[in-house]
Specification:
The structure holds two protein chains of two kinds. By secondary structure, chain A is mostly helical. Chain A has nine helices and no strands. Classes of the chains: A mainly alpha, B alpha/beta.
Chain lengths: 225, 238
């Protein structure tokens, strides 16, 4: 099996386990749903323009429920010390990183794919003519979040207060991506032409690349320590 | 002489604690070393270094003549580790677990190899049940199947009898006896002196990070070994 097949095997192992328990996905989805519902009820949408707040609410739902998923990601590897079993195999450490990262990406994208329609209904926003641009922004923003999130998830898995530590470590680092994602989502929802969001998209892509390279290079040291 | 495992002056420090101090260990092909020692003697740390999981602070480790950390993948291919933790995913079945590890090891004809090793440890009937429904003994046998799959030439066993009832322990002993056949080099850490002496070709006692005693089994008086062990551990000046 080549490098990519092994990455696929790790990702599929995570998805297969999740399909049995639905532990990660159910907690992520319920949390994101709760965020949307609470914001929807706490803000009078007759007085406030939904387009002023919707993008922020959407990314709060994505990132906070994403944290729940990332927290669980390496916990499954801790069970029975599977991470050691994985490290004993003759695969490059980067295979483990990419496998776990892609698994987390799939979980988040599935959660987002279900959250967005609920968001559209609750905030009464039309997206059918903007769906393509929205998918690009959500995908790129999520990729950056998961890229560095997987690294910090591996780092915090041995810490007792990992549920607290992960967001404290992760959020300051992903702020540039979240800001760019919120801004570009806002522009898309308000009907701005695609040209206007290009600069924000470039920012997200640059940070995605930086996070991917740094995570790829540092994962080996983090996992071995 | 070519040694399969060749450690020279290996030391490992965790903060202020010296887990290993100048460990020298040479084992030939086909050796079965039983390492005894109290908790905290550094036995597991030694196995972790030998299995390439952690790096020593000083000293050199050669596996099959290759310096550890030179050819990471090649060395790991030849090493199997059975720990008191199974390294198995509870939500997956034995087949899925072995299939996953088999892919990581690039095992050819994987389906047949899985069937072979599962049969070898007597778990064919439970091949498609989730691991979380298994008893400790069954999990340990499956863990051995996981190790056997790539047919490693070196096997490390870290307290494999922990938590097993008499029946499961007997079954495990039979499996270990089979492992011993052939040219495999095996290191087993155990607190159970009787079981350790039963299978080994070499005996070692590790105390406070040092190899306090190392002898071939033919030079060991089995009846007096227990008192030898307690005397060595009790000296405590290592």
């Amino acid at each position: 099996m080549d490098y990519f097949s092994k990455i696929w095997a790790i990702m599929w192992k995570d998805i297969r386990g999740e399909l049995r328990t639905k532990e990660i996905f159910s907690s992520m989805f319920i949390f994101s749903l709760l965020v949307l519902v609470i914001f929807n009820f706490s803000i009078d949408l007759l007085e406030v323009n939904p387009l002023d707040i919707a993008q922020g609410v959407l990314w709060i739902a994505f990132t906070f429920s994403g944290i729940l998923g990332l927290n669980r990601s390496f916990l499954f590897e801790k069970e029975n010390d599977c991470i050691q079993g994985l490290m004993l195999t003759p695969v490059d450490r980067s295979v483990i990183y990419f496998g776990k990262m892609l698994g987390n990406l799939v979980f988040m994208l599935v959660m987002e794919a279900i959250t967005v329609p609920v968001f559209v209904v609750l905030f009464n926003i039309t997206i059918y003519d903007k769906i393509f641009s929205l998918i690009i922004v959500i995908f790129l923003g999520t990729l950056g979040f998961v890229t560095v999130g997987t690294l910090f998830s591996a780092m915090s898995v041995n810490i007792k207060a990992r549920e607290v530590m992960l967001p404290i470590l992760l959020f300051p680092i992903v702020v540039p991506i979240i800001i760019a994602a919120v801004k570009s989502t806002g522009l898309i929802l308000s009907g701005s032409p695609f040209g206007e969001i290009v600069s924000w998209l470039k920012l997200i892509i640059v940070f995605d690349i930086i996070y991917l390279v740094v995570s790829f290079l540092s994962f080996e040291y983090i996992i071995e320590e | 002489m070519d040694y399969v495992i060749d450690c020279e002056k290996v030391s490992k420090v965790y903060g202020n604690i010296s887990a290993l101090r100048d460990i020298n260990l040479k084992l030939e092909k086909g050796s079965f070393l039983a390492i005894f020692g109290p908790n905290g003697a550094g036995k597991t740390t030694l196995l972790k270094i030998l299995s390439h999981l952690i790096k020593p602070n000083s000293g050199t480790v050669k596996i099959n003549g290759i310096l550890l950390h030179d050819e990471d993948g090649e060395i790991r291919k030849n090493i199997g580790v059975v720990s008191h933790n199974s390294f198995l995913y509870n939500n997956l079945t034995p087949y899925e677990n072995l299939e996953f590890y088999g892919k990581m090891y690039d095992i050819p004809d994987l389906k047949n190899r899985i069937a072979e090793v599962i049969d070898e440890v007597g778990l064919t009937a439970r091949m498609h049940d989730p691991v979380r429904t298994f008893s400790r003994g069954m999990t340990q046998r499956l863990s051995i199947a996981r190790v056997l799959m790539p047919n490693p030439s070196i096997i490390y066993l870290d307290e494999p009898y922990t938590g097993l009832d008499q029946h499961a322990a007997m079954k495990l002993r039979d499996i270990l006896k089979n492992l011993k056949k052939g040219d495999r080099t095996i290191i087993m850490i155990t607190h159970n002196i009787e079981r350790g002496l039963e299978l080994c070709t070499h005996v070692a006692i590790q105390v406070m990070g040092r190899m306090a005693y190392f002898e071939k089994i033919e030079n060991v008086d089995r009846d007096k070994f227990e008192s030898k062990y307690f005397n060595t551990v009790g000296e405590g000046h290592y």
